Amino acid sequence: MKSINISLPDTMRAYIEEQVAQGGYSSVSEYFRELVRQDQKQRAKQRLETMLLEGLNSGNATEMTAQDWEDIHQAVQERISKRQGNNQP
Question: Which of 24, 21, 28 is nearest to 3 (CA)?
Fold first, then answer.
């Protein structure tokens, strides 16, 4: 694990130390890791919402056919085979 050093104004440092003490974090590092995890989750949620809206706005829905499902199945099988081939020595 690598370290990152950051500079903070005294007021921010005091706030963070208070959050660590009150929030049950074992260290400032743990507090920052939790902030990063929350940010990652929020951004993933935003990306998902964007994709869902794009899908909703992409046009009229069409019913999936048996051939559509077969094509998807085939594409997934090809990806799995390709990935397994890349992982073997």
Answer: 28
- Residue pair 28/20 in contact (Cβ under 8 Å)? The answer is yes
**pTM for the model:** 0.64
Residue showing tokens 């009229």: 60
**In angstroms, what CA-CA distances link 18 with 7, 12, 28, 32?**
17, 10, 10, 13
Query: How far apart, in whole angstroms, are the C-alpha atoms of residue 62 and residue 82?
Result: 30
pLDDT digits (tens, 9 = 90+) for 29-58: 999 999 999 999 999 999 999 999 999 999
